[in-house]
Amino acid sequence: MGRPFKILVVDDSALQRRILRVMLTKRGYQVSEAECGATALRMCAADSPDIILSDWMMPGMDGIEFCRAFRQMSADRYGYFILLTSRSEKGAVAEGLNCGADDFLTKPVNIEELESRLLAGERILQMQEQLRENNSRLCSALSELKGLYEAQEQELTEARQLQQSLVPERFKDFGVGQIALMLRPSGHVGGDLVGFVPSGPEQVLMYAIDVSGHGISSALMTARLAAYLSPGHLGSNVAFEKTSEGYRPCAPHIAVARLNERLLKEICTDHYATMVLAHMDLRTGALSLCQAGHPHPIVLRANGQTEFLGEGGMPVGLISGAEYETVDTTLAPGDRLWILSDGISESEDTTGVMLGEQETSTILGDLADHGPRAALDALMWHLADRTGTEDFEDDISAILWHVSGSQSGQNPIEEEPIPAVGQ
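Structure tokens predicted for Response regulatory domain-containing protein:
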């Protein structure tokens, strides 16, 4: 322990105390004396000993009462308690152990037996000291880890805010159509990204991206992809090409192929991404899109008919020279285009059954009377109700494009409040 063991000898006999003190001092112990239990308690409160040798039979407070009171005292380390007694019956031994004594010695004390008992006590005290030191180190390590965890939580919270800022505008009314976006990472940050880029007064570009994996590395790659599709500088946006009159969107499959090569050339990672890139002509309702491994975009016609667009396609960032296709269709007033991440169709209910694309389309059909923003809220309500939790295992993102009825003289669908889950 790095110091002499401190022993307190408690006995109403001055002779017995002196005999024990001389024997113990010769053996390197630091010894103090007390003539009764009350005095010993005051000494223990001032300076707790390592080992106590206490007589059982003493006037006033006997050894049993002293032991019990000693155990009730608060101390930063354990004290080894040995009772000295001429009683050897089993009932007396049990009584002493029950009150907190660690060992017994019969009187008169045999010095060799006393040494053996003290060595046993020293081993226990050394183990107690080592355990206390280890606990102290553990508490210090846990405190440090807590600080690191809190700092990481703060950084991840800020990262989440930064990632959410990549989608600064979640709803926009273009007159002939409305767009609503949803981005819900499964953790602090995720690998999903949705957005749109107005390209002149009569065109809009929409994109949905799902980077493989979860967490920080996926989020960093998502941020990089956002830069490739940034509306701030169309000259660096892979979905636009320069003309004599400025910049215009290129065919979706060309833009996706460019992005695929850019990823493979500039980013060294095992991550890849699925995506849908869609171009909408606001004048004619013409829609052109490219599907690259993302779930099929779903068109819900005003008459209730459902169409799945695309043939699947290859994810971006996997194979150089991958070829992609553009799919064309036309959206009429009342039609809706849904672009959803696989976190929706692959969500599982409480029995482990996935939602699937067909059931997803059924739910979307039930939301036809909701406005775009309310429809996204209602979709999340359905998912939480079905899975039994709002903490989804995968990132969830969605784009909803609704062709308003203004082209036929109708008013856009009004937004409706959606009740919270469980209401």
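The chain has two domains: 6-135, 167-408.
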